[in-house]
Amino acid sequence: ETGVTQTPRHLVMGMTNKKSLKCEQHLGHNAMYWYKQSAKKPLELMFVYNFKEQTENNSVPSRFSPECPNSSHLFLHLHTLQPEDSALYLCASSQDPAGGYEQYFGPGTRLTVT
Amino acid sequence: GQNIDQPTEMTATEGAIVQINCTYQTSGFNGLFWYQQHAGEAPTFLSYNVLDGLEEKGRFSSFLSRSKGYSYLLLKELQMKDSASYLCAVVDSNYQLIWGAGTKLIIKP
């Protein structure tokens, strides 16, 4: 498999559930990202990892918990979410976390919180 | 604050030319990206401009004017498959990417 993959592609969860999103990149990149994409809004950067160390946490609520066990895998653990958290969650990777590098995106997980 | 402005939606005709504008006000500038995102799919890289001028890549061209805080993406010989959202993103002085909300382009036969 090539590029950036994400699972699941679709997820429906209740507000009391706990679930995890998974991302894997096969590009040998050093940086990985989680973004939230809501309709008609700019991409919101949530977390950045560089060589599996977190370098950015853009004031994301603690109900979102990232995990990066190695430079190829990234998880987003979800618990006690709110309906406003329903969105498309995109994972991306790049050669370097500095913004001047092209980012490669996964297809996203469409999350619905009921 | 930092701001990227793009039109929300544009409509064009198959075979025609369309220009999608992006204006930005950011703390510093270290480059500007354009990405394409088809509905339900991942954004994919189209172009990166860091110097003023026009960069041509097949049917797509991207222009940058740093003094005006302005860029555009020019799409020629439009095809139905060009129907997508086009995202503008600027690299600021801290090398952070600031994203626009995207322009949804609708191509009509």
Describe the structure.
The complex is a heterodimer of chains A (114) and B (109). Chain A is 0% helix and 56% strand. Chain A has no helices and eleven strands. The radius of gyration of chain A is 13 Å and the shape is globular. The mean pLDDT of chain A is 92. Chain B has 109 residues and is mainly beta. The relative contact order of chain B is 0.35. Chains A and B meet through β10 of A and β5, β9 and β10 of B.
Summary tags:
heterodimer; A: 114 residues; mainly beta; 7-stranded mixed β-sheet; 4-stranded antiparallel β-sheet; 0% helix; 56% strand; B: 109 residues; 6-stranded mixed β-sheet; 5-stranded antiparallel β-sheet; 11 strands; 57% strand
Helix-strand string of chain B: EEEEEEEEEEE
Distance between the termini of chain B: 40 Å
Distance from N terminus to C terminus of chain A (CA atoms, Å) equals 33 Å
**Any low-confidence stretches of chain A, pLDDT <50, length ≥5?**
none
Secondary structure: helix percent of chain B: under 10%
The quaternary organization reads as: heterodimer
Helix content, binned percent of chain A: under 10%
Rg from alpha-carbon coordinates of chain B:
13 Å
Q: Count the E strands of chain B.
A: 11
Main interface: chain pair and counts: A-B, 17 and 26 residues
Using only C-alpha atoms, the radius of gyration of chain A works out to 13 Å
- What percentage of the residues of chain A does DSSP assign to strands (E)? over 45%
- Helix tally of chain B equals 0
SS-based class of chain B: mainly beta
Contiguous runs where pLDDT drops below 50 for at least 5 residues of chain B: none
Residue-averaged pLDDT of chain B, rounded?
95
Briefly characterize the structure.
The complex is a heterodimer of chains A (114) and B (109). Chain A is mainly beta and 114 residues long. Chain A is built from no helices and eleven strands.
